[in-house]
Automatic annotation (TrEMBL):
Gene giving rise to this polypeptide: fliR
Family (UniProt): Belongs to the FliR/MopE/SpaR family.
GO CC annotation, single: plasma membrane
Reported function: Role in flagellar biosynthesis.
Origin organism lineage: Bacteria, Pseudomonadati, Candidatus Hydrogenedentota, Candidatus Abyssobacteria
Native source organism of the sequence: Candidatus Abyssobacteria bacterium SURF_17
The protein, known as: Flagellar biosynthetic protein FliR
Transmembrane annotation, as ranges: 12-32, 44-68, 80-103, 123-143, 155-174, 180-200, 212-234
InterPro entries: FliR, T3SS_IM_R
């Protein structure tokens, strides 16, 4: 018969290891990890999810209570797993924010910054606008449920104390990071194309009619044109982000498979 004390210690150690993975991912993941979410709420959510997962996570057969050093090593391993999974999710939002910064530069807003309430940092106007729209769509599409589902599935694909990092994991994370530039350019492409044509036409006008003060006339037109293009491109923002969220979750599962 199993010693009740041994069983209790095993469960407590398993809970701590689960908490390491869950907490690390939630503290880094988009929406959950924003500074607008209080730290106490993040800790509470991590503990609740860990308690819910505890009966579902299998403990390796023959496992005995560990000393502090082996337990700390395994906890660090689980922490890294959560951080890698969370980082794979944040790349998309970083790309969206970067796309807004590109649009800001084209519109002449690159010197204007606002405080992002979700991250408590200064970012350009269009960067914040695109980021907030993406966050609202993320919640409206229940994409945060996909994150929790991926977290649950990670314990089936990568049980406790079985993960190992290899070059395949690094390659998967690098692929997710590489998608950042492509996503950013696709989001910013309409504004870049229109404003580039505007700059060309402005140069032609400057050569044809040099008496016009293009600095005074051209800047308001550039802003108005940029706002119109961004507004019209919102019609394509939702379907593209829906696909991008699917890619984001697929990248997380790809990382999980390589662990």
């Amino acid at each position: 018969m199993e010693n009740p004390l041994t069983f209790t210690l095993l469960r407590f150690e398993a809970f701590m290891l689960i908490l390491m993975r869950v907490g690390a991912m939630l503290f880094v993941a988009p929406v959950f990890g924003g500074s607008a979410v209080p730290t106490q709420a993040k800790v509470l959510l991590s503990m609740v999810l860990s308690l819910v997962l505890l009966p579902l996570v299998s403990i390796p057969a023959g496992m005995v209570p560990l000393d502090i050093l082996p337990l700390a090593w395994l906890g660090t391993n689980e922490l890294l797993i959560g951080l890698v999974m969370g980082a794979s999710l944040t790349f998309l939002f970083a790309a969206i924010q970067y796309a807004g910064q590109i649009v800001d530069f084209q519109m002449g807003f690159s010197i204007v910054n606002l405080i992002d309430p979700t991250q408590d940092v200064q970012i350009p106007v269009m960067g914040l606008f695109h980021f907030l729209i993406a966050t609202l769509l993320f919640l409206a599409m229940d994409a945060h449920h996909w994150i929790i589902r991926a977290l649950v599935d990670s314990f089936e694909a990568v049980p406790l104390m079985t993960a190992g990092f290899s070059s395949l994991v690094i390659g998967s994370v690098a692929k997710a990071f590489g998608d950042l530039f492509v996503i950013a350019m696709r989001i910013a492409a309409p504004a870049i194309a229109v404003l580039m044509l505007y700059n060309v036409s402005l140069g032609i006008i400057a050569k044809t009619v040099p008496q016009i003060n293009l600095l005074i006339v051209g800047f308001p037109i550039r802003i108005a044109l940029g706002m119109i293009v961004v507004g019209l491109s919102m019609a394509f923002f939702h379907p593209y982000l829906s696909h991008a969220f699917d890619v984001m979750v697929a990248n997380v599962y790809l990382v999980i498979e390589q662990l």
